Amino acid sequence: MSAIFCLLLFFLLSPLKVPAHQIPHCLIKGLPLVRNLSGYPQNNFGREGLSHITIAGAVLDGLKEVELWLQTFSPGSRTPIHRHSCEEIFVVLKGSGTLFLAPDLHMRQPAKPNEFSIFPNSTFSIPVNAVHQVY
């Protein structure tokens, strides 16, 4: 799989040629309205083939209700099987892969996960506490 996934889509078409003091800011914590992602730190969390950039989030920006990530998966890489205490929304910008999603949060026995193909310009959401894996 070679794909880029992100929780919310954010595009930067070209760098701004405006002095910093003239850049419009969001109403949330004075965040810049337009950001250049090329200088943002990347992390792989110890997972080969993963590139993760937090575009906006709790630690860097003090946000409490939403985080925005850009993730790139190299061919053959995958996330661990995991869950989150919040909803997750993905937008696939390019590449293809597979989403594995647990069929039911309340089952007493493990079950075979539902399998969904993901592809460019597709989107999918993961419910709160739903066990899932992107491959």
Automatic annotation (TrEMBL):
Zn(2+) binds at residues 82, 84, 88, 132. It is found in: Endoplasmic reticulum lumen. One of its GO terms (molecular function) is metal ion binding. Residues 1-20 form the signal peptide. InterPro entries: Auxin-bd, RmlC-like_jellyroll, RmlC_Cupin_sf. One of its GO terms (cellular component) is endoplasmic reticulum lumen. Its main location: endoplasmic reticulum. Pfam families: Auxin_BP. Glycans are attached at residue 121. Keywords: Auxin signaling pathway, Endoplasmic reticulum, Glycoprotein, Metal-binding, Receptor, Signal, Zinc. GO terms for biological process: auxin-activated signaling pathway; cytokinesis by cell plate formation; positive regulation of cell division; positive regulation of cell size; positive regulation of DNA endoreduplication; regulation of auxin mediated signaling pathway; unidimensional cell growth. This is Cupin type-1 domain-containing protein.
